[in-house]
Amino acid sequence: MRVLVIGAGPAGARCAERAAEAGMVVTLCGAEPALPYDRVALGRVLSGEAEPPALITHGAARLRDLGITFRPATRIAALDAAAGRAETARGETIGFDRAVIATGSEAVRLPLPGAALPDVFLYRSMADVIAMRRRVTRGTRVAVIGGGLLGLEAAASVSQLGARVTVVHAVGWPMERQLDPMAGALLARQLGATRRLDFAMPALSEAIEGQDHVTGLRLADGRSIACEMVVMAVGVRPSVALAREAGLTVARGIVVDDAMRSSVPSVLAIGECAEHRGIVCGLVAPAFAMAEAAAATLRGEAAIYAPRPDPTALKVSGIDVWSAGEIEPADAEAITLSDAAIGRYRRLWLRGGRLVGAVLYGDTADAPFYLGLMAGGRDVTAMRDLLPFGAAFQEVA
Ligand SMILES: Cc1cc2nc3c(=O)[nH]c(=O)nc-3n(C[C@H](O)[C@H](O)[C@H](O)COP(=O)(O)OP(=O)(O)OC[C@H]3O[C@@H](n4cnc5c(N)ncnc54)[C@H](O)[C@@H]3O)c2cc1C
């Protein structure tokens, strides 16, 4: 069976590998020029801790051994599912029996005045981080728009290169989707102290200033942040244009069933471009799980992709923050353990005797314990008094 995998990000590369292991004839097309690499680790290249080759997950020899035909810098421009044919942007045709769309997401570029100036960067691909690393020198002033997970990671990485960074965030505390206000405040304080990051929040960006190059970022409240470079980290959008033009059902992402089949059964979709039960994932663990489910479907097995609570952790060394599940839900009870002097903080949310969300700051060793309780949907009423102290206290009790 000829399988065409479109997109060589983590999901596409994993699915191609599994299909090839099962003896299928696999072609893997990636729009980026690079060999498949670990996107999650891009911050290490941006900060100068690693060089691009260190991130490659599927080298040329491995792809050859697997029997995968890898085509880098090959964007698929059109898909004819009924005829089993795809067309590349260069006009070549590739035939297939099954296609797997793994086109991921694109970073959003805010349509601000000045957004097209050089020195305005996105943070998504190897090309983005190589370009940023070339641009930053010691003392470069950088404004990072977006204080979410990726914005903070980009800010910490460029500060490691010697940049002076201001994070501009629309909400009053960073990572508001993963953290409650208290944990967010602790995080901003620690990033200020250890990484010299400044924060402007809540603040909306209005325009990037400068004629031929960036000179500042104007905020809606009238302030202006002097800078020579802007990084936009304001979210992603699933890459669904190819699927839509091919006539597949697309909502926010490409709509798939539990077996990762799209509305056209010979075409599967996985990773950040797919929408499963109304949810588009934004993390690598579900993207890998979808790749495994799709590979099982290709092998003719009854595959079921079962989403799990998706924990998030900030990958800035020396900062231990972790969260999972629902954060500050209106209809849940909260238990808080806080010792600001030593920078430890925990907040847990319970509904109907079950743990539905958790934030850990300063000490994240109990993350697997809380995640297990959430995933298992276990009734925690009997352990409630010692719950915020973590797993060790449960064993003692
Ligand atoms: C800097 C950074 C840090 C991150 N850190 C974390 C983290 O700590 N934890 C975590 O869980 N997640 C993290 N993520 C998110 C994680 O990287 C994604 O969830 C994951 O990459 C999704 O994989 P994917 O294969 O679905 O899509 P992608 O990684 O987006 O890959 C899709 C690929 O398809 C290609 N493509 C698109 N259209 C076409 C086409 N028409 N033809 C051919 N190729 C095409 C794209 O160029 C791209 O290479 C991070 C992301 C970034 C950018």
From TrEMBL:
Cofactor(s) this protein requires: FAD
Keyword Manganese in record: no
Domain NADH-rubredoxin oxidoreductase C-terminal: from-to ranges: 312-374
Keyword terms, alphabetized: FAD, Flavoprotein
Signal peptide: none
Pfam family, one: Rubredoxin_C
Domain FAD/NAD(P)-binding: 1-277
Residues that span the membrane, as ranges: none
InterPro entries: FAD-bd_OxRdtase, FAD/NAD-bd_sf, FAD/NAD-binding_dom, FAD/NAD-linked_Rdtase_dimer_sf, Rubredoxin_C
Family of this protein: Belongs to the FAD-dependent oxidoreductase family.
Identification of the protein by name: FAD-dependent oxidoreductase
Organism: Roseomonas alba
Taxonomic placement: Bacteria, Pseudomonadati, Pseudomonadota, Alphaproteobacteria, Acetobacterales
